[in-house]
């Protein structure tokens, strides 16, 4: 079976702040920007990987979601437990320094994990957890 990851979705509360983080701090390409105000769907992705995208979406925009569900989503976003993505790089220390210099919220400095990886973690402007694994060649 030949399956790849094409698109993942992460919520945003402030489209301009999220766009700046993914474009300017992480260096991702902006592939699409649809909508207005807080109701914007922004597609970004790593340069050189056009087949892999992250869609930054307004949380709970679905009209079928109840007010209670919207409240729960907002609470989970505030804790950093609603949206999580794991990225990878061969230069963990360089990426960590760039993100830290860009005022990203550090959740964990580069650490050797007991399960065999070295990683770090940040939160994006919407509170999404961004974990970055070091790829060793």
Automatic annotation (TrEMBL):
Signal peptide: none annotated. It holds the Pfam family Glyoxalase. InterPro entries: Glyas_Bleomycin-R_OHBP_Dase, Glyas_Fos-R_dOase_dom, VOC_core. This is VOC family protein. Residues 4-135 form the VOC domain. It comes from the Bacteria. Gene3D superfamilies: 2,3-Dihydroxybiphenyl 1,2-Dioxygenase, domain 1.
